Amino acid sequence: MAHSIDIEVDVNGEHIFIIDKRILASYSNRVSELSTKLTGYTKLKFNDFPGGAESFELITRFCYNNGSILITPSNIFLLHCGCTFMEIPILITQTELYLEGIHYLTWSEFINGLKQCQILFSTMSTHPCFQEFLNTLLGNLSLPSSYPSSNSSSFRFSSSDTTPKSSRSETLLDCWKFDDLTFLEIDLFEKVIKSMILLHFEHPRICSFILHYQKSKFFLCSSRRQKCKLLETTINLLSSLNESSFSCRELLDVYGTSLILNMKTPERLKLETFLGSRLDEFRIDDLLVRGKKKQAFDVDLTLRLIKVFLLERRIFGFFPHRAKKVGFLVDLFMIEVAVDPFLKPSKFIALGMALPDFSRESHDRIYHAIDLYLQVHRDFSEDQCSKIWSILDFSKVSTLTSGFLLVRNTNFLPFQKQNKFKTSLFHDFVFHKFPQYVKNTNKKEKPRAKGVLHARRFTQKRSKIIDPCNVKSLPRLCH
C-alpha cells in the first residue's frame, strides 16, 4: 500500500469514491495542489461538495474519459458546479459555453434541469449562480403549441427581446403540466415562483401554478408542520401577485384550509386583507365561519372584513353598487346570527352600524334580524333594547313589512316616544293596503279600528303570501 496512488474521497458523507490520484490531479487544480502534500494511500473528505455524490461521479467520468463528457440539459448544472468546485478549467469553459448557447428547452429537459436544481439547492441556494440556472430554465423553455400554425406545428421560446413577454408567458403556462412539478421542495418552489415574477410572467398564470402546487402537495405532506409551511408559502407568494390574478373563491379555499390548520394570525390577516377588499363577491355561506368559544359564528371576522372593505373605499375610491351588495350580505348574516343566544348586544349593534347609510335602500331585513334577536334574548333591559332598536332607520322600513310585524310582534318598539310612529304606521298600512275593508265599515264605527281588525284577519289568512319573514328566511340554526 506504500506505493499506491489511489485516494479515498468521502463526498458529503453520502458516498466514498476510490480513484486514481494522478488522473484526477491532471484535470483538477484543487486535487493537484493537495497531492503535493499527500503521499501514499490518502483520504479526502468534502463536506460541502455542490450536488453531492451525483455531481462528483460526473466529474470522475470526465477525468477517466480523457477530459470528455457529453453535456446535456440533464447534467449541465451538476457538471458546472462540480467542475467549479474542483477547479477544472477546461470543463468550466465547456459548461459556460453550453449555458450561453442554450436557447430552447423542451418540457422534459426543463424538468430534468429543475431536478438538478433540487439536488444543488441544499448547498447553493444562496449562490448567484443558482439564480442564473433558474432564469436560464424559465427563460428558454419550449413547448408544443396547443394551436396549429400555418408555418410550423410547434413553436419555441427564446430570450430575444423581440418576443413579447406577455405572449411568451401566456402560451407557456397554458401548456404546463403542473403535476410533473410536485417533486419540488417547498423552498425551491418558492424560488421558482419568484424567478417567474422577475421574468414578467403573467400573474394569473403564476397564480394557477401556485394553487395547483398547493393542492397537490398538501396531501403529500406527512405532518401538520409541513402543511402549515406549505400554506404559509402559498399565502406569501399570492401576496406578491396582483389582486386581479386570483378569484375570490380560490382565496376562500385557501382561507378555509388555514382555519382547519389553525394557522398563525399574520398569515391569516394577509388573506383577510385580500378577502375584505372583495367582500361584495361573497355568498352568505362564506361568512358562516364557526365562532370561538360558545358563539355559533365568527362575528369578529365579518367585522374585520367590513373594515377592510371600507378602507379600500378611502384608498381606491368607492362604488355604491358594491356597497349595496355588501349591505345585503351583512343583513343576511345578521339574521343568521340573531338566534345565537351567546351573541352579545355590542357585536349585534356593531354589525348593524358597520356600513354607511347608502349601502342599504331598505331596513326590512335588519327589522327582521332585530325581531329574531329580541325573541331569543328576552331578558334584556329597556336600555339595551333601546340601543338595539337605534340601529334601525324607520324611514327605510316598508309599510307592508312594518304593518305585519307590528300586528304580530307585541314587543316591538316598547318606548313611549315612538307611539306616534306606530300610530301613523298603522294608519298608512290599513288605509293604503286594505281600503276596501274601511269603505264597508259602519260610519258610526271608527274606520281606523275596523280597518285594523280586518287587516289583522287578512294577514292571518294570507301570511304565506305577504310575510317577508317567512320560513325561507329563517336562520340555519332554527332549521
UniProtKB/TrEMBL annotation:
Keywords: Ubl conjugation pathway. The keyword Mitochondrion does not apply. InterPro entries: NPH3/RPT2-like (IPR043454), NPH3_dom (IPR027356), SKP1/BTB/POZ_sf (IPR011333). The keyword Transcription regulation does not apply. Coiled coil: none annotated. Pathway: Protein modification; protein ubiquitination. Pfam families: NPH3 (PF03000). SUPFAM superfamilies: POZ domain (SSF54695). It comes from the Eukaryota. Residues 175-426 form the NPH3 domain. Belongs to the NPH3 family. PANTHER family: OS12G0117600 PROTEIN (PTHR32370). This is NPH3 domain-containing protein.
